[in-house]
Design a protein that fits this description.
single chain, 283 residues, alpha+beta, 5-stranded mixed β-sheet, 4-stranded mixed β-sheet, 13 strands
């Protein structure tokens, strides 16, 4: 592929926005990537392999494999990355967790799909609107606000920061480095008043566009008045007027948050192995 970096970025952006519009006609709302990929005729399967991030196979398939060992946000980004390989007709691609020693060599295909994944999950207008809805600015928002927005977009906190800095240029280097020091571990301790090694998802009244997906034993933090239609999650604490839940049973129910309206809440087994389409079904 002989395109310049600028041409690759433009191709990634155009393709990402086209895919978003294809999903439901709105280019800028957060959306469920897994649902969209499956609607395009691809299967997504989670496998218990710790040595790689993901794989795309055109034949037989098309099929995307994702490691069940990766954090949720990483799985989401890896899925977007592998979907990029599919859209750009790259054939079979295996993306390992441990890269070879020749990591400094520029790979135009990998750059293209990484850039595509960022624009697909975090377009500039989507990110700006998320901060505006919370009456925050990108340069003044606290780490917890970044964490809320990352939860809604389905990506990791550090992934959002890096995209704002490197791709969207909405954070300068000084601001990026300052925010990067506030780790996910620090944010989770601030939310839960203790260290917690597992996954934490934060839902507030500004959540929009996609279901809330958690696994058994994940923690769900809900801010604002809300109701839950079933008993798939268990209330475990109230901290700073936020309700803390833990995923306890596999299934699908509704979470109704004031101002946000009804949101599907889907709970799967911890480190689920199998096809994504069966993830929320009881055994």
């Amino acid at each position: 592929m002989g395109n310049s970096v600028k041409e690759l970025v433009e191709l990634a952006l155009i393709t990402a926005l086209r895919e978003r519009k294809k999903f439901f006609g709105n280019t800028y709302l957060p959306f469920c990537l897994f649902d969209h990929v499956e609607r395009q005729g691809l299967d997504i399967k989670f496998v218990d392999i710790s040595s790689f991030e993901g794989m795309y196979s055109k034949e037989p398939g098309p099929l995307i494999l994702l490691s069940s060992q990766r954090p949720h946000g990483r799985q989401y980004f890896n899925c977007a990355h592998e979907y990029g390989h599919h859209l750009f007709d790259h054939g079979m691609k295996v993306d390992e967790l441990v890269k070879s020693k020749n990591t400094n060599k520029f790979d135009s295909k990998e750059f293209l799909v990484d850039t595509f994944a960022g624009f697909l999950l975090m377009p500039k207008t989507t990110v700006q609107q998320a901060f505006q809805k919370r009456s925050q600015t990108i340069t003044s928002a606290k780490p917890i606000e970044y964490f809320k927005i990352a939860s809604n977009l389905g990506v990791g906190y550090q992934t959002l920061l890096f995209h704002l800095y490197k791709s969207l240029r909405l954070l300068n280097k000084v601001e990026f480095e300052k925010r990067k020091k506030k780790t996910v571990k620090f944010i989770k301790k601030e939310l839960l008043a203790q260290d917690f090694p597992g996954e934490v998802i934060f839902v507030d009244e500004n959540w929009v566009g996609r279901p809330v997906d958690i696994q058994i034993d994940d923690v769900l933090v809900v801010e604002g008045e809300h109701k839950i239609s079933g008993d798939l999650i268990e209330k475990i604490a109230v901290i700073n007027e936020r309700i803390i839940y833990k995923g306890s049973e596999v299934g699908i129910e509704k979470l109704i948050v004031e101002n946000a309206g009804p949101i599907f809440l889907r709970v799967s087994r911890n480190k689920y192995i199998g096809f994504n389409k069966y993830k929320h079904l009881e055994e």
